[in-house]
Automatic annotation (TrEMBL):
Belongs to the ROK (NagC/XylR) family. This is ROK family transcriptional regulator. Residues 6-52 form the HTH marR-type domain. One of its GO terms (molecular function) is DNA-binding transcription factor activity. PANTHER family: BIFUNCTIONAL UDP-N-ACETYLGLUCOSAMINE 2-EPIMERASE_N-ACETYLMANNOSAMINE KINASE, ROK (REPRESSOR, ORF, KINASE) FAMILY. CDD domains: ASKHA_ATPase_ROK, HTH_ARSR. Pfam families: MarR_2, ROK.
Length: 384
């Protein structure tokens, strides 16, 4: 337990002296010295420079030997796969984006090939081989059904619905593979380092090319019987077609319910209806924010749509906090957030706090890295 506590402190704080480590763990100096010697012999820590600016001789600093293991994190979307490779300290050392034109054939082996190519590209950028990897976590739309192993709720990802997709990828990459819902990963990242750090009961609403939610209760993700908890894009709402009435599920904005009202394609169509033309939803909302009249109408209608869907979730889950994330929420910013808050008045009896995501960069990759690193550290840091 002392070894693991020391390793976790070195991850959290960076290089520490023996004295600092002893103070943080409550261990005596001789015990801290023995611990560091043991971890250094195991290759888990290494000396790195000295602490200066303190009375007396400069003290030796120790840090995690981050190069002892690496992990891969991937984000899958209809346009391609982004892979990053990070060392055990969480420093990203390689990244690669692979456009998925070849995924359109829907072949199961092609899915594995695309993922492997993305990971290998990130490894090449890091100057590493595949044998350096200890864990791989993949964030995708939809979720693995725990009963069948098949990826559900993601019909727009051809080739990913195989019941053996995780086993196929594990065999292809040579590492344990976790396939996790992308919005769940965003919520884990938000809980770890974002705006939900101090909350164990919250809902993250993702409004992007698709619409979804992650529900965290008592600090744990709610997954549901088929892994579909939080698939609020299919939730029936006034003004949107039902899922059974949709003509096709091939497009991210297809399907029925909330997704047809609040996804990026829906926002773009809403803006165009008010005479605002733009290349994508973020650009349309940026224009709406500076366009009196038409822009105000776009924002008001979007806030009403978001609030209506969020109110249904609040009524069932009663969270302490609702976090808005995804490109629609980020582009609308604080003004959209304020309008949604106003619209929620009277729609839902519980009144949770409403906040925007506080994460920089790709929140899906951040969450996937967090999960991969936690798993890898559990294995590598096991000195028992």
């Amino acid at each position: 337990m002392n070894d693991r506590a020391a390793l976790d402190l070195l991850v959290a704080h960076g290089p520490l002296t023996r004295t600092q480590l002893g103070e943080l763990t409550g261990l005596s100096k001789p015990t801290a010295s023995q611990l560091l010697s043991r971890l250094a012999a195991a290759g888990l820590v290494r000396a790195t420079g000295t602490a200066t600016g303190r009375p007396g001789p400069n003290a030796q600093l120790y840090e995690i030997n981050a190069s002892i293991a690496h992990v891969a994190a991937l984000s899958v979307d209809p346009l391609g796969v982004t892979a990053v490779v990070a060392d055990l300290a969480g420093t990203v050392v390689g990244e690669h984006r692979l456009l998925a034109d070849a995924m359109a054939d829907g072949a199961r082996d092609r899915t594995s090939t695309v993922v492997v190519e993305a990971v290998d590209g990130a490894l090449r950028a890091a100057g590493l081989g595949r044998d350096a990897l200890h864990r791989t976590v993949i964030g995708t739309p939809g979720a693995l059904d725990p009963r069948t192993g098949a990826l559900r709720y993601a019909p727009h990802l051809p080739g990913w619905q195989s019941r053996t997709v995780r086993e196929d990828l594990t065999a292809a990459l040579g590492t344990p593979v976790v396939i996790e819902n992308d919005v769940n990963l965003v919520a884990l990242a938000e809980h770890d380092r974002g705006t939900a750090q101090d909350f164990d009961n919250f809902v993250l609403v993702w409004a992007d090319e698709g619409v979804g939610a992650a529900i965290v209760l008592d600090g744990a993700l709610l997954r549901g019987a088929t892994g579909g908890a939080g698939e609020i894009g299919y939730m029936p709402l006034p003004g949107a077609p039902l899922a059974r009435e949709a003509e096709t599920f091939a497009r991210p904005d297809a399907g029925g319910g909330f997704q047809r009202l609040a996804s990026s394609p829906a926002v773009l169509a809403l803006a165009e209806a008010y005479g605002i033309s733009a290349r994508d939803a973020p650009a349309a909302l940026a224009e709406a924010l500076v366009t009196p009249g038409a822009g105000d109408a776009v924002l008001a209608e979007l806030a009403h749509r978001l609030a209506t869907g969020i109110a249904s979730v609040i009524a069932v889950v009663d969270p302490e906090l609702v976090v808005l994330s995804g490109e629609v929420a980020q582009a609308g910013g604080e003004r959209l957030l304020s309008l949604v808050q106003e619209e929620l008045t009277g729609l839902a009896l519980p009144r949770p706090q409403l906040r925007l995501s506080a994460l920089d960069g790709s929140p899906i990759l951040i969450g996937a890295l967090r999960t991969a690193l936690a798993d890898a550290r559990d294995t590598v840091f096991d000195t028992g």
